[in-house]
From TrEMBL:
Source lineage: Eukaryota, Fungi, Fungi incertae sedis, Mucoromycota, Glomeromycotina
Organism domain of life: Eukaryota
Protein name: F-box domain-containing protein
Organism: Rhizophagus clarus
Amino acid sequence: MNSSFLISDCIIQIIKYLENDVKSIYCCILVNKAWSYTTIPYLWRNPFEIISNENFSKAPRLIQTYILCLSETDKLHLIYEGFNISKTGSAFFDYPSYIKEINCNLVNKSISTWFKKTYFEHESINEEKENLFIWKLYDMFFSRCNRLFSFKIGLKKYGSFNYPNFSSFFGLRQTITDLQHLAIYFRPSDNEQINEQINEHISKFFKKLLTFQCHNIYFIDYKSCANRDILVYYDEKNIAYFKISELIKLQHGLRLFRYLDDTSVLNFEEASSIFGALKNQIKSLTHLELRGIGFNDKIIQCLKLFENLKFLIIINCYQDKLLTEDLFPEPEQLSIAKFVFLNNRHMNENLQVAFLKLPNYNLKSLTTDFIDNKKVRDILNYQFPNIIYLSTRIEKNGFVHMNWISNLTKLSHLVLDVSFNVLGYLTYSHIYNFGLLLPSSLKVLHIDNEHFSPHILGNLLKACVEKKLSLEILGLHFDYRSRINELYLYTILEYLSKSPDDDLIKLKELRIGVGLNKESLEDIFPDKILKIVKKNVPVFTKKNEYGYWYSNWIRDDCNKFGQDSLIDV
């Protein structure tokens, strides 16, 4: 059958298969009218996310397209206020009706980019008129889109922007009734008027979610603030309820919950309220991320109830001073597959150990910077025999105490962030002995730090040859361009030449990342050595997803669960 005459159901299945391949979806528009009409809604369901990947270079054109979709009344109003837009042009499709996902931060950044590249009749547009323009676009989105799937507000990744009062939009109920992914980030209460105004608008929108009984949300991404009046509402009896807790209770099947708080604000009251509400989601909750929250006995007692939890993240958290050791979590309470435990230095050592004992033998992926501790090493020796992915930070003489790693007989992925203070303790024999301890199951080795010199790397790879390890992927990450040179490549080539006549060394991919440097490999290394490496390694790439493992987890704008691992566990 000619592909031009496929029925729409077949075309839809093809487009769904190409969901993350925007260029291919765009090509589908060009086949014929049937393909075009079927494809356009998918291409325009989340257009702002697409342009953000291109540094907003296409943002002005996107905003211009949406301007064409404005009603004639709105166009005339904007023209009257001094905006240089056409009142006669119109779009080929009703693009606002296709929107399914809105990230307000991306929308506002796109509008800001459009402002900078557009001429007006007046020399400048004041803040009041800019807010009018923003209001017009959002009002169009909310009145014409056919129910949102995802809505994010308050994130600051691309800057700080003002938002309209969403609760005043007439089409709000229909738009958010079937919302499934919600991200609400309140701004820090730093006495800035703009932040207080934004928080007020977000708070009113939050209240609407409760009023409209939005109960189909499966992923809530929430960041709190210090202003209690913003976070709560009062009933007829003047009893205060935390809005986020009431929203959690409403849900029919919450699966993912991310909670970010400010460590400078000891907000135990809200945290306890949230965990009390999460008890209603014990059966459905599978992913839980906690950043900057305080643990007290109530929260710990709730945590062990999540019997279906598969992924737990605890970052930059602290403990209630009244929390005594007899209230610490008991070992092997959770049957989780992935556990991330980082930067929890505001907890005492024994509580950190207790948390690392929480998972049972089903744990397969562990990311932690708290491994240079004898009690933790004892846990790794016997409690987690099924780990296949380990990402950790090596401090001081940490390589000397890595005997336990030989017991991880299923380990296939190892990511090491080597601290600069290791250099004063590390010898060639230390790193060689560590290499001999690596389990024969290891397939992927990544080292994240430029302090790991070519000679140290060479000794590690020498031990891998001696141990007859068959590495498939080797990754190196450097924070600065000046720290990398071709000696690393010569060291790797020497490793590849150790056993050229057998199948011992099967390196399929070499990944070298250099901070935020955008230079190509050809700009970093001499042509001669580059050609030799490419001849010996099937894939040699600068793309290195493992780099920045530590800072990626600490920052607040992490968007996806599971970034600690490239494997499906």
